[in-house]
Amino acid sequence: MGLKIIVAGKGGVGKTTVASLLSFFLSSRGKRVLALDTDSVPNLALSLGLPREMESKIVPIVKDESLVEERTGARPGESWGLLFRLNPKVDDIVDKYGIRISENLSLLVVGSIDSAKQGCLCPAISLGKALISHILMEERDVIVVDSEAGAEVFGRGLAERFDHMLCVTESTQKSLEIAKRIARMGRELGIREVTYIVNKFSGDESERLRISETLDARHFFIPYDYSLIRAEIEGRSLKELDESSPAVQALRSAFESIFG
């Protein structure tokens, strides 16, 4: 069986940064990586280096109304109480809609599968969940999921198929408490391993010690790095970052410890 990793956390802490650099790291080791963007505002494509003009044309799977109608028998929003297939055909979607980033790295932009945000279990959510369930059951080297904020959106039956959660947080008390709640949800849903990534850290040794005493699992500190933030602002591939980047070095070291 392959390795299935979910990158989770509250909004704005750097989930996409971690997911993209992890995807580059594992694919550079010869692993065949499929990166899934399941955020409601997907932007993993830019971090992986897809040109903005190409990225802007991507329609997330759950937002492609024609595809949703073709696979479920119902068009999203047509009418309340509409009947639709709960087990739509999804086994060809990665091949048809996946985007090749490099020889060992592909991207599929799924979009959010959080039914709470949609208001119901609509045809689009049905397709999205069926697709992710199918992908997680396939024999692939590595699957990296850039998730919607929180882990509960995956629910039992999806989350329990992940081997590892990287829970990304900042060093504020509020962010740390949210991260711990997300990690607890992940464990309750069956995710076997949880690691915290304390991102954008700029504190001293006493601050590092305080955070270490707060967290309940293995954790790594990633220093604040303006070059990484600038690359994200400019929409540049994070692969272009110089190896001297403190954040890139720290993340590589963390990935080595966790997955090496």
UniProtKB/TrEMBL annotation:
Q: Which residues form a coiled coil?
A: none
A Gene Ontology cellular component where this protein is annotated is: cytosol
Locate the CobQ/CobB/MinD/ParA nucleotide binding domain: which residues? Answer: 5-237
> What are the protein's UniProt keywords?
ATP-binding, Nucleotide-binding
Q: What Pfam families does UniProt report for this protein, alphabetically? A: CbiA (PF01656)
GO molecular function per UniProt: ATP binding; ATP hydrolysis activity
Please, which domain of life does this record's source organism belong to? Archaea
What PANTHER family does the entry give?
SEPTUM SITE-DETERMINING PROTEIN MIND HOMOLOG, CHLOROPLASTIC, SEPTUM SITE-DETERMINING PROTEIN MIND HOMOLOG, CHLOROPLASTIC-RELATED
Q: What is this protein called?
A: CO dehydrogenase maturation factor
Give the organism, scientific name. Answer: Korarchaeum cryptofilum (strain OPF8)
Q: Top-down, what is the taxonomic lineage of the species of origin? A: Archaea, Thermoproteota, Candidatus Korarchaeia, Candidatus Korarchaeales, Candidatus Korarchaeaceae
